[in-house]
Amino acid sequence: MKFLGFSILVAVILVLCAPGALAAYPESNGNHAYEWITNVNFSGIDQTTGKEVDGYGDYTNISASVSINTSYNLSVTIDCDWGEYVTAWIDWNQDEDFNDTGEEFVVVADTETDGPHIVPIAVPEGATIGTTRMRVSLKCSNAPPSYGYFGFGEVEDYSVQVSGPAPPIPELPTAALFSIGLLLLVGYVLRKNWRP
């Protein structure tokens, strides 16, 4: 009986200590009474929404596809009240937070228009390959936090599939280009001067 109890204890410890076992993205939501996100468009995502229940929309079943060392435009349209701020975060290193350098993108600050508001996002060389999280937040009167509850705004989460960089297009060496050009010129001259 002691062995069974010990085995269960060890199994529970192994499960709880496994990488990512207890990790989860920090929750975030706003109060959507006066302003909300109406569209997010980013590399395969084109999601139109209305007011979210409890100021939060979980769209992690919808995914963008991006490649390392490539830039994409993130477009966010909102139903604006006044003095709106939109910020997005992408967890490039997949550590389940948005605190690292290069993970925050200010889409627009202190706007009174619906948009679309656009910001370019470059996928960094050090991004971890695989599926990660993108969070888009809207808040009135100042910038939204990446987590926690805040009044007057809304939060939407999406997935982002990160792949390796596109392979480079091979370049022909200058000597090869010169040789090809020379062969074409010689062929043209011979053909022009050919007399049967």
Descriptive labels:
196 residues; Immunoglobulin-like; alpha+beta; 2 helices; 11 strands; disordered N terminus; elongated; 4-stranded antiparallel beta sheet
In short:
This protein is of the alpha+beta class. 18% of the residues lie in helices and 41% in strands.
Structure commentary:
The protein is α+β, with helices and mostly antiparallel strands. Helices cover 18% and strands 41% of the residues. The protein has a single domain, classed as Immunoglobulin-like, CATH 2.60.40.10. It starts with a helix and ends with a helix. The strands form 3 sheets. The chain has a 5-stranded mixed sheet, with no helix packed on it. The model is unreliable at 3-22 (pLDDT under 50). It has 2 helices and 11 strands. The protein is elongated and about 90 Å long.
CATH superfamily (homologous) name: Immunoglobulins
Mean pLDDT: 85
SSE ordering: HEEEEEEEEEEEH
Uncertain residue ranges: 3-22
Structural class: alpha+beta
What share of residues are in beta strands? 35-45%
CATH class: Mainly Beta
Distance between the termini: 103 Å
CATH topology: Immunoglobulin-like
The major pleated sheet works out as:
5 strands, mixed
Q: What shape does the CA trace take?
A: elongated
The amount of helix comes to 10-25%
